Every structure is written in C-alpha cells, then in structure tokens.
C-alpha cells in the first residue's frame, strides 16, 4: 500500500491538528489575559490562574495520554488495513479514562486548599486558587472524553473534525470569559476569577458534546461500551501506564518550576504565568507537526514502510525547526506588546521582559523534541519516551534548577533549566529512532 508523505499531505494533517492543538492553551491564555486586566487584585488573580493551571495541566496531561495510545493503535491498524479489529477499542478506552477522571474529582475537590499550599500559595492567592479550581475541576471528564475522541480521529488520519470542535470551543471560551469576568451592566454581575472558571467549564462541555456528535455521524466508530474487551486493551493499558509515568515526570518539572516561581513572590509567579502560557502556546503550535508525525508514523509502521518513515522524520525535522525559528522571531517582534496584553503591573512586566527571551531561544529545540515525541507515540514506543522523560527531569532539570536557584538566578534559572530539559528530551529520541530504522529502511 502506498502512503502519501508529501509536504502537501503532511500539511493537510498538520494544519488542522495545529489549530486544534492551540485551542488547549488558548483556554488558559484567555483566562490569563482577561484576569490580568481586571481592576481588583489582578496580580493575585493572575498568580492563582497560573498555579491552578499548572496543577490542572498535570492531571489532564497524565490522563489525556489516552489520545496518543488510541491514535497509535488505530493508525497502525489503518496502515495494515485491519480497522474492523479495533472498532470497539475507543469506547472501552473512553470509559476507562472518564471513570478515572471522576475519581480525580472526588479525591482532589475536598483537599484543594492543601494541594495549592504545596505550590507555596498563601493568603489571597490561595483563596483565589481554591475558588478557581473548585469550578474548573468539573471539566475533567469532558476534556478527557474530548481528547480520547480526538485520538480516535487522529488514528483514522482525520484532523479536520477535531479542528472544527476546537475552534468552536475556543471561541465560546473567549466570549464567555469576557462576559462572565467583567459582567454586563444591569444583566450579569462581574464574577472575576470565578467567571473565567465557568467560561472554561462551559467550553469544555460544549466540546465534549460536539466530539460525540462528529464521531457518531462521520465515522463508523461506536461510542457504546461493548464486551468482551478488545484484544488490544492490554497493549493500550501498558502504553497508558508508561505514558502516565512519563507525564508525571513531565509535570514534576512543571511543579518545581511553578513552586520556585511562587516562592519568589506574587510578581514573579504572575510573570512566570504569562511566560509559561506563551511557551505552552508555542508548544502546541509546533505540536501540529508532531501530530502529523504521530498519525503518519503509526500508519507507516503498520504498513512496514520503513524507508518512508525515515523520510518522514527528515521532513518533519526541517519543518519543525523552521516553525520554531518563526515563532521565536514573531515573539521577538511583539516582545513588549505581548507583555502589556497580559498585565499592566510594572513589576510583573519588568520580570517578564527580563526572562521571556529565553523562552524564544528555546523554540527550535522544542520543535525537535516535540516532533520526535509525536513520532514515538505513533510508533507505540512509550517505554523509551518514559525513560527519556525520567532522565531529563531527574538527572538534568531538577539538579540544574536547584543549582541556579542557589546562586540567585530566580526566573532566569527556571527557564535555563527548562532549556536543558528540552535538549535532554530531544537528542536521545533522534539517536534511538535512527539507530532503529536506518537498518530496516535499507532492507525495505
């Protein structure tokens, strides 16, 4: 079977995936931008959004790895022309992951105050963090359901419908954010940080409903849970467990980064919140091409088209580095307007401007790491991804962070440590991929 890996076809998959991907950080960026411009306690509110955002991202990224596992298995069966054999797998996977999300709600809601104390939140920041989280937490099942459906679409080589769903969700969040945070005189009272949480929750619910609709109407994949369990469920669970460990390591990185920034003071965590949300935006932008790598690598592996797989990686590296450089240049051009978009506090802006350049320089390196993340997820090689993240977090990031903190680098130290973390993620994946598939491609 001939599989198209031309730039045109890659873009056909990557651009919708890119648009869908950036909807996730747009939810947080919208909250950050609007909350940073309220008239009452803006800095404390912005800090709370950053702290809660870090914790929510940790949970969603851990449980949301269902998307990658489903995509990998489905795409491999598509490549082998055996899709019928895994049609009931997505519904079973969705049931497992949404059940876990309900357990997360039950186990974190009563202890929200204690959780955010671990992030060094206190006083008004702690109060706002708890208020914001106790609303956002109910969006977990809807978000994870949506991500699992997106993974199914990716496995089917379709990124168009996830893009439509993501656009509608992001626009809904932006409109509701503005209305509920600032209010409408004589009609809707200003709800400040709680309004931002309700806006995000509403957008997540809408996206879940649309995901169910498009999957049922546009594909042959059912959402009804059926038994017996699919024979691939064991491989799916092993993938998920490896990705759980990997993502926990990833979020330990974000936890330490957020905790250190919070410990430096309200202005520092506010500046860090702006910078890290822009980093997330860039990451998800680049992730569009990582998604194309995920989708196509699984299909190529299923078809045993190893030489095409190697060509795909070379193409994506060039594209990814180009996008990373472009993101850095755009950030440099709009360096000062970006800061003013999120805050008017002179101290917050000064700290942001003093460190954001490190985020920009990191972008081409991020592109390589994220693209090979996507390729390895498509290949189903979650074990190697797990080991690389454990190494980059515990052997590289944490020691560098503590050392730079000890010599007073503060935000600079956090972002420099993140840069080395990214390098330690990307290089081992490139080496492993080429060592595995170069010999296979020669016999292809």
UniProtKB/TrEMBL annotation:
Q: Which UniProt keywords apply?
A: Antiport, Cell membrane, Ion transport, Membrane, Transmembrane, Transmembrane helix, Transport
Query: Key word RNA-binding present in the record?
Result: no
The UniProt entry's sequence similarity note says: Belongs to the multi antimicrobial extrusion (MATE) (TC 2.A.66.1) family.
Q: What is the annotated signal peptide range for this record? A: none
Keyword presence, Ion transport: yes
Look up and give the membrane topology term.
Multi-pass membrane protein
Could you tell me which species this protein originates from? Mariniflexile aquimaris
Q: Which InterPro entries match?
A: DinF-like (IPR044644), MATE_fam (IPR002528), MATE_MdtK (IPR050222), MdtK-like (IPR048279)
| Membrane-spanning parts | 46-64, 93-112, 132-153, 160-184, 196-216, 236-257, 269-296, 316-336, 356-376, 388-405, 411-431
Name of the molecule in the record: Multidrug-efflux transporter
Annotated PANTHER family: FMN_FAD EXPORTER YEEO-RELATED (PTHR43298:SF2), MULTIDRUG RESISTANCE PROTEIN NORM-RELATED (PTHR43298)
Which top-rank group of organisms is this from? Bacteria
Q: Where in the cell is it found?
A: Cell membrane
């Amino acid at each position: 079977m001939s599989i198209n890996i031309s730039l045109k076809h890659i873009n056909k998959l990557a651009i919708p995936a890119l648009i869908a991907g950036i909807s996730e950080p747009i939810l947080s960026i919208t909250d950050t931008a609007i909350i940073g411009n309220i008239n009452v306690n803006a800095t404390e509110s912005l800090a709370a959004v950053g702290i809660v955002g870090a914790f929510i991202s940790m949970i969603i990224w851990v449980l949301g790895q269902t998307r990658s596992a489903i995509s990998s298995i489905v795409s491999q069966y598509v490549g082998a022309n055996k899709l019928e054999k895994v049609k009931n797998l997505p519904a079973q996977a969705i049931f497992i992951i949404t059940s876990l999300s309900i357990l997360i709600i039950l186990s974190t809601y009563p202890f929200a105050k204690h959780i955010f104390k671990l992030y060094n939140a206190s006083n008004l920041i702690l109060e706002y963090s708890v208020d914001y989280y106790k609303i956002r937490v109910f969006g977990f099942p809807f978000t994870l359901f949506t991500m699992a459906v997106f993974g199914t679409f990716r496995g089917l080589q379709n990124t168009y419908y996830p893009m439509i769903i993501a656009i509608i969700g992001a626009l809904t969040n932006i409109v509701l954010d503005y209305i509920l945070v600032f209010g409408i005189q004589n009609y809707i009272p200003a709800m400040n940080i709680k309004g931002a949480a309700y806006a995000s929750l509403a957008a997540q619910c809408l996206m879940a409903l649309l995901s169910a609709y498009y999957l049922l109407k546009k594909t042959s994949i059912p959402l009804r849970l059926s038994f017996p369990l699919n024979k691939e469920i064991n491989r799916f669970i092993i993938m998920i467990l490896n990705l759980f460990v990997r993502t926990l390591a990833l979020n330990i990185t974000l936890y330490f980064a957020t905790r250190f920034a919070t410990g430096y003071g309200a202005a520092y965590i506010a500046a860090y919140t702006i910078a890290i949300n822009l980093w997330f935006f860039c990451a998800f932008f680049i992730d569009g091409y990582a998604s194309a790598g995920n989708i196509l690598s699984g299909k190529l592996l299923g078809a045993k088209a190893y030489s095409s797989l190697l060509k795909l990686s070379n193409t994506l590296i060039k594209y990814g580095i180009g996008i990373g450089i472009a993101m850095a240049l755009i950030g440099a051009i709009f360096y000062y307007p970006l800061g003013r978009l999120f805050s008017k506090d002179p101290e917050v802006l000064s700290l942001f401007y003093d460190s954001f350049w490190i985020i920009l320089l990191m972008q081409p390196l991020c592109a390589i790491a994220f693209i090979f993340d996507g390729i390895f997820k498509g290949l189903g090689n979650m074990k190697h991804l797990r080991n690389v993240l454990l190494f980059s977090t515990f052997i590289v990031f944490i020691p560098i962070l503590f050392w730079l903190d000890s010599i007073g680098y503060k935000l600079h130290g956090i972002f420099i440590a993140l840069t080395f973390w990214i390098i330690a993620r990307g290089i081992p994946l490139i080496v492993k991929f080429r060592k595995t598939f170069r010999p296979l491609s020669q016999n292809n």
